[in-house]
Amino acid sequence: MPGIRYEKLQDLDDETEIHQPKETSSVRLSIVAFLLLFGFISATIFLTSVPSNGMSRTVIGSRSLEETSQRPVLKSTSKSKRNITRWVDYYFTQEESEFLNCSALLPANKDSIDQYVTHGRMKLDKERLFELPMDCPSIRQRIHGDMPSFKPLKRPIAILRTVYNIYELQEAFLSISYHPDNTFCFAIDSKSTEKMKTSVRKLDDCFENVIVLEKEYNFDGKGHGQDPAHFDCLQRIMDRKWNHAVLLQVTLSTSFFSSLKLLFQNFDLVIKTPYQLSDLSELLNYTSVMGFDFGFGDRYNQTADWTPAGIKLFKSETGVPDKILHSKLRIRKGLNEVIVSKVFVKSIFEKLNVDRIIKLFNENNYYGVDEMLINTLYENNLGLDGQLEANCSRNHRDVLSRLTHWNYNGPNGFTRTCLSHFKRHGICVLGVEYLKELSESNYVTGLLLETTIYISIFTLS
């Protein structure tokens, strides 16, 4: 990012190494989209060696992956590919996955896409879900039992996710990004079913690197609860080894059809392998990734005292310049999906009463309340390690965090201007029609609807 400078750091956390970049270098529908994407990513992880100065991609058709035996984690094995077909069979019948032809769908073969869409996009039917064995050996088998051996990561990553329902999808999410060096944290919606809560909490019991927060949150379509959940996760994992954290969320929205109140979900899908994320962390060093623009006046309380002194933002004001204490914070807006460095997060917890500013953004009835906190803390000059200097450009477009196709032509719903012919909240739904773009994208995540995500998971794995 030319022209943008970062503060030099002193006395950094010994656990978080600073590297210089090298100079040369519907329930079933949701899981289907995710699993297609998962197919590509798993193949990329284990069929390619990712150099430290770049992110390579390899397209592999899931039907060509050979069946191999389970192997212990971090032990040598001759297996180099994941059996995506067998993995899909954990969640779908052969009839349901009949047109899951990843080798044709990924390069955007029109006939294959039309055939898949015509016969119905894969989805998890609540009435036909398999009764998955929930003992730890069975769960671990589904998550990573058929993966090749893991190579140590230079820079471990933390992945934080808020969840509402569809446990099978959460397994798929975990599987697509799983590496024993990474850390995972889940925050559960209080409105989730007891079965969902029990199932997700089982992941905490079965994996040392998976944390499920005891506290539950009230997520809604306006973004409430996301910031508290993410920061509780960040606080919980501070003693773990990671260099960057990827913040992901479930977005709930309510629609009304024939007087029926329906709750829909969007999901963030990681479309990079653990090794690619580790390489990205090395390139980022101690910096973070997010976009920012001017905060929308109708999304926060403009009458509040937004000076650090007024909201008692600092734990100790000793040594903080008056200009910082008494200057009004510039409210910045971006996406909730960001990549933050541990250096930056540690400085936030050490220096700020973060609960106070979380409360200011979260405790109101505004829309999009989850899109301002991190961006505001990162852009304003607060003397935090790893934050962007205040003399940066006024606006900055995020070109790494989340792939998004904005579409403001006409109302939400059916539209011919999106490849998938459907949009929500002014965003094109990324279905099978976008698989090629997803696989070639530089972005780390993509936003998908619960009825389209499984095809992406399976194909990109």
UniProtKB/TrEMBL annotation:
Localization annotation: Membrane
TM helices/strands, residue ranges: 29-47
The entry's keywords: Glycoprotein, Glycosyltransferase, Membrane, Transferase, Transmembrane, Transmembrane helix
InterPro entries hit by this protein: Glyco_trans_14 (IPR003406)
GO CC, one annotated term: membrane
PANTHER family: NUCLEOTID_TRANS DOMAIN-CONTAINING PROTEIN, PROTEIN CBG11221
Protein name: Uncharacterized protein
Organism the protein comes from: Caenorhabditis brenneri
